[in-house]
Amino acid sequence: MRASPVIRSTRRGTLNAMTRALVKWLVVVGAVALGVVYAVEDFRLQTEALTFYYSTQLKNGRVQVYYDQPQTEVCVRAVFPHGGRRPCWYARRESVRRVS
């Protein structure tokens, strides 16, 4: 037995409305969560100094690391960058940075 076209279009409209409402709800919840994380991290912002070294690639393909010139970078203990500083979990990943 087939449903009448009026009932079918009503169901489809209800599903579309529910889908739109769910997507809007997810966007709002995500934005609120991001705002809370940013506010909490900005309130208790802690910094740390990391040491890294510069390196260059030589013509023969090898990499020259300049260990005699250690550099320091101030990073923040946060999930996202704050005030132009990189997060420490991301800055620790490369202790040797290649310069072209």
The total tally of domains equals 2
Query: Which blocks of ≥5 consecutive residues have pLDDT under 50?
Result: none
Helix and strand content put the structural class at alpha+beta
Largest sheet composition:
4 strands, mixed
Q: What brief labels describe this structure?
A:
2 domains; alpha+beta; elongated; four-stranded mixed beta sheet; 100 residues; 23% strand
Would you kindly provide a written description of the structure presented here, covering whatever features stand out?
The protein has 100 residues and is α+β, with helices and mostly antiparallel strands. It has two domains: 1-44; 46-98, no CATH class. The chain has two helices and four strands, in the order H-E-E-E-H-E. The protein has helices at 5-43, 88-91; strands at 47-57, 63-65, 71-76, 96-98. Strands 1, 2, 3 and 4 form a four-stranded mixed β-sheet that branches.
How would you summarize this macromolecular structure in one to three sentences?
The protein is an alpha+beta fold. It contains 2 helices and 4 strands, in the order H-E-E-E-H-E. Strands 1, 2, 3 and 4 form a 4-stranded mixed beta sheet that branches.
What's the SSE blueprint?
Blueprint: H1 5-43, E1 47-57, E2 63-65, E3 71-76, H2 88-91, E4 96-98
Parallel strand pairs: 1-4
Antiparallel strand pairs: 1-2, 1-3
